[in-house]
Amino acid sequence: MTILVTGGAGFIGSNFVLDWLAQSDEKVVNLDVLSYAGNLENLASLQGDARHVFVQGDICDRTLVDRLLAEHQPRALVHFAAESHVDRSISGPGAFMRTNIEGTYSLLEASRQYWSGLSDEAKAAFRFHHVSTDEVYGSLAPHDPAFAETKTYEPNSPYSASKAASDHLVRAWHHTYGLPVLTTNCSNNYGPYHFPEKLIPLMIVNALAGKPLPVYGDGQQIRDWLYVTDHASAIRAVLDGGRVGETYNIGGWNEMANIDIVKTVCALLDELRPDPAGPYSRLITYVKDRPGHDRRYAIDARKVERELGWRPAETFASGIRKTVQWYLDHPDWVARVQSGAYRDWVSQQYGA
After folding, report:
1. How confident is the model at residue 90 (pLDDT cuts 50, 70, 90)?
2. For the chain, what is the radius of gyration of the CA atoms?
3. Domains in the chain with CATH codes
4. Which of 114, 159, 216, 327 is catalytic?
5. In what order do the strands lie in the sheet with 76-79?
6. pLDDT tens across 230-265, in order?
7. To 10 degrees, what angle do helices 258-272 and 199-208 make?
8. FRET label pair with 118: which of 98, 269, 289, 347, CA 20 to 30 Å apart?
9. Whose CA is closest to 130, among 78, 175, 178, 71?
10. Handedness of CA 161, 165, 129, 30 (dihedral sign)
11. DSSP state, residue 299
């Protein structure tokens, strides 16, 4: 038995692959283009492991995807590959349209052709699992109910619009062609191997370097936070038992304001790696808010709990401590991902 994973060298994808092979001997074929956020070092522990087959390639390369499906005959395709950074989508939306929309279309068509040629038994067992985001639902007011799976789509950034489009394509390929699909919409992930352009790892690496900790606007934007290995376990649960054609929201039941996240990271660093110059919170620097910044996201994850019995294992307190400790324990990984291109991006986005 085999699964095909797209984007399996990225942050969430690599954590999923590592978790999958820790739980199962089922082979993973891992297709990743290795963009700036894809990092094979995340998968170094699998070097020489015959259960992991890595292929560098683009999900828009239909010939390649067709070949991988024909050669490896997977029982499922788990689709992580995406451009995912909102700031990058604002300054350069084209890459998001290509990867998130055209790439998903390419995978759907390749999967449809492959699936239609399977035996009846294999056809019934096959799944196309599309991994998406809560950002497709738009923004919530302070007292609005959390996002349920029935929430109207109201994407507000080029990133979330591209993911909303991909969700709609997945739904259409199920309803029009019968392709057996599953969609999960997750909240903000955090944990090991997170590329340091996102909030939590950026705060950790900047604090350790004595650099400013840039906080957009007033820092009161609220997100639900999900530890990445909890996300991996949720995907396994949905892939194993989710109803075909259904959407499941995956959240951590951890709503927190960005400024409180930053202060929590600072407090943990004060405890675990104190700075002789003083508390890390001295480095907090408020910067101009991003255009169209959504104020609040919150996930109602009762459906996946009710139907599949899944709940996150980590609290935010336990998950954030593990995350900060991981970055303290892996300075070489951090140094290697902080390429010149990455430093240029942070400088461009947040100022000197």
Report:
1. very high
2. 20
3. 2-190+227-251+294-312 (3.40.50.720)
4. 159
5. 52-56, 27-32, 2-6, 76-79, 127-133, 181-186, 247-250
6. 999 999 999 999 999 999 999 999 999 999 999 999
7. 40
8. 98
9. 78
10. negative
11. B
Compute the distance between CA of residue 11 and CA of residue 32 in angstroms, rounded to an integer.
Answer: 12
Q: Which DSSP letter does residue 100 get?
A: I
Contact 8, 32 (CB under 8 A): yes
154 belongs to the catalytic site: no
Query: Of the listed 32, 134, 255, 300, which one is catalytic?
Result: 134
Q: What is the pTM of this model?
A: 0.94
Q: Does the annotation mark 153 as catalytic? A: no
Which helix H or strand E contains 178, and what residues bound it? Answer: none
How far apart are alpha carbons 310 and 235 in whole angstroms? 10
Across the chain, mean pLDDT equals 95
Token pair recorded at residue 114: 């492959």
The 3-state DSSP class for residue 308 equals helix
> CA–CA separation, 329 vs 341, rounded Å?
24
Instruction: State the pairing for strand pair 52-56/27-32.
Output: parallel
Q: Distance between CA 303 and CA 305 in Å, rounded?
A: 5
> Is 149 among the residues known to form the active site?
no
* Alpha carbons 192 and 195: distance in angstroms, whole number: 9
Active-site residue (options: 135, 224, 230, 314) = 135
pLDDT tens, position by position, 268-300: 999 999 999 999 999 999 999 988 899 999 999
